[in-house]
Design brief:
alpha+beta; 364 residues; 13 helices
Length: 364
């Protein structure tokens, strides 16, 4: 019998030599080299040792060539119709989660499989032969800067991250359903001025730790040169001005609604109020493409597309982590990374971010 293995790829991702990989599995370097090259088939015991050394399941490292497509059932963690959707797989709390790639940081990220059927409360995923490993960390949130963190975790720790771009309320709800390890949120209560607390207390039945990611600048973005002469939120109600809005439950939409109430402007007087872009960069992209004249997003989204930026207010963006996940190695790696000055500098270079408190716990 011949097996295809992903040992070389896993070893390369960690920067390991064959000798180090062999030592981690408790086998000789010669045996390891023969298995990695395909010249030798490992025993069950050795396959398990190798899987443990790389932190993978045996079936993620070894497979039979030209075998019929494998299938796995997983909990659907996306929005909309699942059939035919490309997905990443993540393990959260002992359960396999199917995460649509088109909701991720990059729509064309490699997929683990395609949803081929529906089961009770689950989907059936047809696995692709060349697929990324099961993600060990699933994060839901709307900050595009998290892509820098996810890339660093993959590159330096060999840690697979499945990141979905969702509004703040949707991210917290994903935590409540057990579909994520970490949620990013920036929901401000207009009555108390408190950030995130009311929504956490309402939605999450377990204790959580809140960690500062950054304080960013929320802004009203307009096309370069501001051809519509927009100077304040009330101008969005002028005839001919088209808004690109964020989805309900997002912090940016909450900010817009608060500003409209303060300005005495009814939402239904604004063309485009009912639009719903997923993420800050999607707002900037729509304005840059001429599909809208204005939208609310972070300054970094305006900088990314060369737009004009009218500052509104600074807001803290927090990472919310259920306490029962704090001991996971993947979560520990994330928290360690957030405390590094180099990561902070990378995020601040995007413009509009203050990362001086990144990685610190938020007082309850």
């Amino acid at each position: 019998m011949r097996l295809i293995n992903d040992l070389a790829r896993e070893r390369g991702r960690r920067g390991w030599s064959q000798a180090r990989a062999a030592a981690a599995a408790g086998i000789s370097r010669q045996s390891y080299a023969a298995i990695e090259s395909g010249a030798s088939v490992p025993s069950t015991e050795v396959a398990i040792r190798l899987a443990r050394a790389f932190g993978r399941a045996v079936e993620e490292l070894f497979r039979v060539p030209d075998a019929p497509a494998e299938r796995i059932t997983a909990r659907w963690a996306g929005e909309g119709e699942p059939l035919g959707r490309r997905v990443r797989l993540a393990r959260v709390g002992g359960r396999v989660i199917a995460v649509p790639t088109d909701e991720g940081e990059r729509p064309h990220t490699p997929a683990a499989g395609v949803v081929a059927g529906l089961a009770v409360d689950e989907v059936v995923v047809s696995l692709l032969p060349e697929r990324p490993p099961m993600a060990e960390l699933r994060v839901v949130g709307c900050d595009p800067a998290f892509g820098i963190v996810a890339d660093a975790l993959r590159r330096e720790r060999g840690l697979e991250v499945a990141w979905s771009q969702r509004g703040s309320r949707s991210a917290i709800e994903a935590l409540a359903r057990g579909e994520a390890h970490v949620a990013g949120a920036h929901l401000r209560d207009p009555r108390s001025g408190e950030t995130n607390g009311p929504w956490i207390r309402e939605a999450l039945p377990f204790p959580c730790t809140r960690v500062v990611f950054a304080v960013w600048e929320q802004a009203l973005l307009t096309a370069r040169g501001n051809p519509s002469a927009i100077t304040e939120v009330a101008d969005l109600a002028r005839p001919g001005v088209r808004l690109i809005n964020r989805e309900p439950g997002s912090g940016s939409r909450l900010l817009l609604d608060e500003a409209l109430v303060s300005a005495g402007v009814p939402a239904d007087s604004i063309a485009g109020y009912d639009t719903a872009a997923r993420g800050h960069l999607a707002v900037g992209e729509a304005i840059a493409a001429g599909l809208a004249d204005a939208g609310i997003a972070i300054r970094a989204a305006g900088a990314a597309f060369g737009l004009d930026v009218l500052p509104l207010r600074p807001e803290p963006y927090e990472l919310i982590i259920p306490d029962h996940f704090l001991d996971l190695p993947a979560v520990g790696a994330l928290l360690d990374l957030l405390r590094r000055p180099g990561i902070r500098a990378q995020v601040e270079a995007l413009q509009g971010y203050d990362t001086s408190a990144m990685g610190r716990d938020v007082a309850p």
